[in-house]
Fold this sequence. Notes:
Radius of gyration of chain A: 13 Å
Strand content of chain B: over 45%
Helix content of chain A: under 10%
Order of helices and strands of chain B: EEEEEEEEEEE
Number of helices of chain B: 0
Oligomer: heterodimer
Structural class of chain B: mainly beta
Mean pLDDT of chain A: 95
Distance between the termini of chain A: 36 Å
Largest sheet of chain A: 7 strands, mixed
Strand content of chain A: over 45%
Low-confidence stretches of chain B: none
Number of strands of chain B: 11
Helix content of chain B: under 10%
Number of strands of chain A: 11
Structural class of chain A: mainly beta
Low-confidence stretches of chain A: none
Order of helices and strands of chain A: EEEEEEEEEEE
Amino acid sequence: EIVLTQSPGTLSLSPGERATLSCRASQSVSSGYLAWYQQRPGQAPRLLIYGASSRATGIPDRFSGSGSGTDFTLTISRLEPEDFAVYYCQQYGGSPLYTFGQGTKLEIK
Amino acid sequence: EVQLVQSGAEVKKPGESLKISCKGSGYRFNTFWIGWVRQMPGKGLEWMGIIYPGDSDTRYSPSFQGLVTISTDKSISTAYLQWSSLKASDTAIYYCARRRGFGDGFDFWGQGTMVTVSS
């Protein structure tokens, strides 16, 4: 079973700062099939990044994804107030077919 | 405009059965996989299973295999998640979501269905 571990659990930053979120897999993720989601309170998740580094439709370019194999990163270059939310990584193709990380809460400092 | 509209909140007793729905519109429903995701109160996201409406090919997470049934009625562009005997631990928000493409993430999500199981 592929386990995704996200760090840190909580990240406290101020608007305008840069955020770096990590997602580490227990085994190599097939072909970079790694996605990132944002979930604001009371809302459904929103796809930000797929294929480790491709931005989904309508996602601002301050969001970027990188990584391969077992180590992946979501970077938000300059935080806006609406970016404070919970972020999840997700892999596809392992066992089970899909797995989510436990989430990183990005909170206002 | 792509939309997934889920059925409304449910309050059930332990042992009761339940079937919730997810209706797709604005795209060719038969040609995109639909997944189901659980979110227990205050917790993270858990993938439950996924179905291809075109031929009803279904895959389950081992954690949910045998506990739920995923199905679809492509004639009305609707996917379903059902339980035959609910437990209190099934209390959660359940989301349906469309898979963008092979190896990609889920690009459109339903609004979620809150299921409460309590005696």
